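Lecture 7 notes: from sequence to structure.
We start with the chain below.
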Amino acid sequence: MAGQINVGGDDFGREIAAVAYFINQEFLRMGYATQAVVGFTSYLFDRYGYSDMNALVQSFNYASNRVMQKAGYTCINEFIKKLDGHPTE
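Predicted structure tokens for the same chain:
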């Protein structure tokens, strides 16, 4: 299996869903992640009528940030999470 892709529930009835994926190491840098995100996002818009999609990507994960950019996603917000699990101000 090359990896997985899935979607979380919509965001409090606003018809916004979150996409998440992972790619197994032997399939990295082959374009599969970008193809999966592009295709899955298109499917979700067409099939379920979401008005928007989002994803959480760690800022230091340059490869995933690039995948999301190539798939048409735009960074709209950044936040920092402390080790205790509570967001910082």
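Points to note: Strands lie at 3-7, 16-23, 52-54. DSSP finds two helices and three strands in the chain.
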